[in-house]
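Private note to self, pasted from the team thread so I don't lose it. Backbone tokens:
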């Protein structure tokens, strides 16, 4: 293959002359392939880091799953951005906990805790104020790393569209045919600065409250007001939608305020050498974590209410995942996953510092070791993690067998229709085909699992009231149980199990990330999964994995427009490539569309995207896509394909669709036969999701579409 356009990240390739024809080529047709896999899984470090950014990715997806485009006053978009900001604060507070709270405040002052740890002994020489100032540099450095990673990914994969930015660039995104919808560099850059401001303000507030505890002077109050004001200003900027002409002034104002609050708080802490050190956690830290959980619970309730209100404007008969509640559900999932990450980080640090003990109010550690108590909210998160595992496992165990009978009946009907004269010797092959078809519908049975996860997430947030008053699971058990000690200790052990379960799940994700770094095969699998999550622009959380479509769609649009001036162009997209192809068609200029046709195969456009993202790729958008092309569109699909499916020929769709839409879908029998063909030695294989370009129907579809463009 030789690259004819693009670069090493994503490019267009053709077969070298003299090496034969590319797969799927027909007479008079030149095949050109677009390779974009390096944008998602081509670099091992980027693929591994994506797993760490998983909660941010979920929060970014939530707003794209809304039921309709209508968003009065940009309310839903603002709430989703504010919830995404709370995730940044949650990770910052966790870093504050594992640097300033646990080691600096609860470990270093105790001889047994720092014994044999030279890396901590030098901190004991420093007074409490300078010690916390030094440790506060760690979360600030982490924010700087996130900033650098986000800026680097933006330079490599975003800002590829030359379309001028919108006047109101922080608003909720419009439809996929809007000019510049993939140009999210300006929005991401602005959000990145706000999130760094949120994190830095959180560190500054934590530092001032800790060192000024019990000795509030005018300087301390002023510094706290500055740090809290910066944090509140960043939160407000996440809700409002400033115009592009005001963004420059806001940036020039925000950044000096962030720097001033950070530097002044560090300087104040460094100057405070006599700080009272009460036993327990760092002053204000547990309340901050509990307050954050309360804010997240309130935001999720508001997001759910706004989403339900938006459903009144959705078109009648539109099919949506879980009744259109994808936005609050995925938002709750992002909070739950972020809670698992932060809980694991805090408890594993505490476990390391307390030399294997797991202290709590019922089982305190030795006095010489220090309290080493994580905030109550993390204990409740551990119990919620255990409940999540049990409930989700039960939901899967119930949902899959319940639907198995229906899937098997459908598979039996398909086999009887496709192979009515199969001999008795093909019984084994027929059974394998039936099993494959039944398994191909497994994605449709995951709805109850998602509902269960949403319920568990809500249960975890229902402990907000107990968080705010500082009651942990063991303390609650001690108050409610008659045999206080036994019941409380049992609850403590159950909570410990939840802690380890959360830790094992998170560590498992990290191992998967390591495997993605070391193994190209694992990296490709992870990359396929991340195709679904990194397709959409980062309009909510700037630290989410970069949006590869921000480069791929504008690049495809430019290349197709250039080729269309030379002759007919058939855009062929397999699997997720069909989604890129559809997004490209929606961006093509009107004068180019008459010379373009679309061929999709193994496409998840209806099966996954129309249900998950009804406002952007629902039935109405797909019909509009066909009309733009004059219905020069063919979609090849197989019953054995677990991803691809018909786009228009699905149950109950015919009465609502125009007649030309019914000719788009072309079903391929798979396998071709269940018996051994005369020129072969084994039965034809089951192709499932394998690319369709080797099938005769593919070449026939290409010829048909080319003739339609030419008017033959």
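Design output:
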């Amino acid at each position: 293959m030789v690259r004819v356009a693009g670069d090493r990240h994503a490019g267009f390739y053709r077969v070298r002359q003299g090496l034969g024809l590319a797969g799927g080529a027909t007479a008079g047709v030149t095949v050109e392939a677009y390779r974009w896999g390096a944008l998602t899984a081509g670099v091992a470090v980027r693929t591994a880091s994506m797993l760490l950014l998983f909660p941010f990715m979920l929060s970014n997806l939530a707003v794209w799953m809304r039921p309709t485009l209508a968003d009065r006053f940009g309310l839903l978009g603002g709430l989703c951005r504010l919830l995404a900001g709370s995730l940044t604060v949650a990770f910052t507070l966790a870093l504050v906990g594992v640097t300033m709270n646990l080691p600096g405040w609860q470990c270093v002052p105790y001889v047994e805790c720092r014994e044999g740890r030279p890396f901590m002994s030098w901190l004991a020489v420093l007074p409490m104020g300078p010690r916390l100032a030094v440790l506060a540099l760690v979360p600030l450095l982490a924010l700087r790393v996130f900033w650098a990673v986000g800026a680097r990914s933006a330079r490599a994969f975003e800002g590829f569209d030359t379309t001028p930015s919108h006047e109101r660039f922080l608003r909720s995104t419009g439809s996929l045919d809007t000019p510049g919808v993939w140009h999210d560099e300006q929005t991401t850059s602005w959000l990145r600065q706000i999130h760094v401001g949120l994190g830095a303000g959180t560190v500054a507030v934590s530092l001032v409250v800790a060192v000024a505890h019990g000795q509030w002077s005018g300087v301390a109050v002023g510094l706290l007001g500055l740090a809290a004001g910066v944090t509140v200003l960043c939160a407000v900027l996440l809700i409002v939608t400033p115009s592009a002409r005001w963004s420059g002034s806001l940036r020039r104002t925000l950044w000096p305020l962030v720097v001033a609050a950070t530097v002044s708080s560090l300087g104040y802490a460094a100057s405070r050498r006599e700080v009272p050190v009460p036993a327990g956690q760092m002053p204000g830290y547990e309340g901050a974590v509990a307050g954050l959980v309360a804010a997240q619970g309130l935001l999720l309730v508001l997001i759910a209410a706004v989403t339900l209100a938006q459903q009144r404007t959705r078109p009648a008969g539109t099919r949506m995942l879980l009744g259109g509640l994808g936005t609050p559900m995925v938002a709750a999932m992002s909070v739950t996953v972020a809670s698992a990450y932060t809980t694991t980080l805090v408890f594993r640090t505490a476990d390391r510092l307390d030399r294997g003990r797991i202290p709590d109010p019922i089982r305190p550690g030795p006095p010489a070791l220090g309290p080493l108590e994580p905030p109550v909210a993390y204990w409740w998160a551990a119990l919620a993690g255990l409940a999540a595992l049990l409930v989700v496992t039960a939901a899967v165990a119930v949902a899959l067998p319940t639907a198995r009978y229906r899937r098997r009946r459908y598979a039996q009907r398909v086999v009887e229709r496709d192979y009515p004269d199969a001999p008795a010797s093909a019984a084994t092959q027929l059974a394998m085909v039936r099993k494959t078809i039944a398994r191909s519908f497994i994605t449709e049975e995951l709805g109850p699992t998602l509902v269960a996860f949403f319920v568990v997430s809500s249960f975890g947030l229902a402990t907000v009231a107990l968080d705010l008053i500082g009651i942990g699971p063991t303390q609650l058990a001690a108050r409610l149980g008659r045999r206080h000690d036994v019941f409380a200790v049992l609850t403590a052990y159950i909570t410990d199990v939840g802690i380890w379960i959360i830790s094992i799940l998170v560590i498992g994700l990290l191992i998967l990330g390591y495997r993605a770094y070391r193994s190209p095969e694992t990296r490709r699998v992870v990359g396929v999964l991340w195709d679904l999550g990194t397709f959409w622009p980062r309009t909510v959380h700037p630290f989410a994995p970069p949006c590869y479509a921000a480069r791929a769609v504008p690049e495809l649009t430019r290349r197709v427009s250039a080729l269309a001036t030379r002759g007919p162009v058939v855009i062929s997209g397999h699997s997720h490539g069909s989604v890129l192809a559809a997004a490209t068609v929606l961006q093509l200029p009107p004068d180019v569309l008459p010379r373009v046709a679309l061929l999709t195969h193994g496409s998840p456009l209806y099966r996954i995207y129309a249900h998950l993202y009804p406002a952007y790729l629902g039935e109405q958008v797909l019909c509009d896509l066909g009309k733009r092309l004059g219905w020069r569109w063919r979609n090849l699909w197989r019953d054995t394909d677990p991803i691809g499916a018909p786009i228009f020929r699905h149950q109950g769709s015919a009465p609502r669709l125009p007649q030309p839409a019914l000719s788009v879908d072309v079903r391929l029998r798979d396998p071709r036969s269940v018996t051994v063909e005369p020129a072969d030695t084994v039965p034809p294989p089951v192709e499932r999701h394998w690319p369709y370009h080797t099938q005769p129907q593919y070449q026939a579809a290409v010829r048909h579409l080319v003739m339609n463009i030419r008017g033959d």
